[in-house]
Every structure is written in structure tokens, then in C-alpha cells.
Design goal:
Order of helices and strands: HHHHHHH
Distance between the termini: 172 Å
Shape: rod-shaped
Structural class: mainly alpha
Strand content: under 5%
Number of domains: 3
Mean pLDDT: 83
Number of helices: 7
Radius of gyration: 51 Å
Length: about 180
């Protein structure tokens, strides 16, 4: 019996078989197509996600690298490749290290520095006129006048006379004679 004979003799059965075959074929085609489409979509998504992840990681590494301050190269190298630290987090860590470094430098400076020398301007026994050569003549005269009672007595408390003498002496116009005092 041929297919045509079967269809003409048993049309209901033939229709049912055709419908059943169509449904089975449709379901099989749909399932196979869906599976292949999902596999293709998954592969494309994975490729896209990997490219996106690689780009984000390069940007993260560059952001961390941009935080470099000279002297902290080792820390930046570690942070660049730890896989988690962002640029702003790296900046915070670098600033913390820089703060520690500066505090250590200051502490070391205070611990290792020599004792301060006494200020000669406060010592009445020290003559600072040699050290004060860079000061104006009036200031040097005033300093000497204020700290030396003998000078004030010698000029009878007349500062203006002393200032005139001091200026002339500074210009080399005064000769001081020393010798026997005749009474």
C-alpha cells in the first residue's frame, strides 16, 4: 500500500498521523533550535563579558597607577595587581603611607638634632656687635647702648651724642688714643 492509498482509505488516521508528526517535529525543532541558540548566546555573552571585564581591569590598574607618589612604587605595584583595589582606595593608602613617612622624618629630626645654642643677644656678657655687622648702624648703637651701662655713663646718658660718635666710629672717622692719663 502506498501513502496515497492509505490517505484515501483512512483519511482520519492519516490526518492524525500527520498532525502528530508535525507536532513532534515542531517540538524537536524548537528544542534543538533553542538549545543551539542558547549555546550561541552564552558563548557571545561570555566573550562580551570577558572583554568588558578585561577593559574594566585595565582601567582599575591604570587608576591605581595614577596615584603614584615618588617613594611609594612598591606599594603601588602591589595594589595594581591585587585585583581589588580601586584608584581612590589606592590614593587613601598612599596618603596614609606618606603621612607615616613624614611623621617618622619629623620624629627622627627631633631625636637626632643637636641641642640649640644659647641666643647670644640675651647674654649680657657676650659682645654681639661683631655678629650684628649686617644690622643698620642705628640698631647696633641702640643694642650696645641698652646693654652696656659703662657706655651710658661715659656719655652721661646722652644717647644722641653716643649715636653720633657710633656712626663716626663705624665710618672710621674716630681715633681712640690710648696712653698715660695725665692728671
Amino acid at each position: 500500500m502506498t501513502l496515497e492509498e492509505f490517505k484515501s482509505k483512512y483519511p482520519d488516521i492519516a490526518s492524525a498521523l500527520i498532525e502528530e508528526g508535525d507536532a513532534a517535529g515542531y517540538n524537536r525543532g524548537f528544542t534543538d533550535g533553542e538549545k543551539k541558540g542558547a549555546e550561541k548566546a552564552t558563548k557571545e555573552s561570555q566573550d562580551q563579558a570577558m572583554a568588558q571585564g578585561a577593559q574594566q581591569e585595565r582601567e582599575r590598574i591604570k587608576s591605581v597607577q595614577d596615584q603614584l607618589i615618588s617613594g611609594h612604587e612598591k606599594l603601588i605595584q602591589e595594589l595594581m595587581f591585587d585585583g581589588t583595589t580601586t584608584g581612590p582606595e589606592a590614593a587613601v593608602k598612599i596618603l596614609a603611607e606618606e603621612r607615616k613617612l613624614r611623621k617618622n622624618v619629623i620624629t627622627t629630626h627631633w631625636v637626632e638634632s643637636p641641642e640649640a645654642l644659647p641666643d647670644p643677644s640675651t647674654d649680657k656678657d657676650v659682645d654681639t656687635t661683631e655678629q650684628d655687622k649686617n644690622l643698620p648702624v642705628e640698631e647696633r648703637a641702640k643694642k650696645t647702648w641698652d646693654k652696656d651701662a659703662k657706655v651710658r655713663k661715659e656719655f652721661d646718658g646722652d644717647y644722641e651724642s653716643y649715636l653720633a660718635w657710633f656712626k663716626a666710629n663705624a665710618k672710621g672717622q674716630v681715633k681712640i688714643l690710648q696712653g698715660k692719663v695725665v692728671k
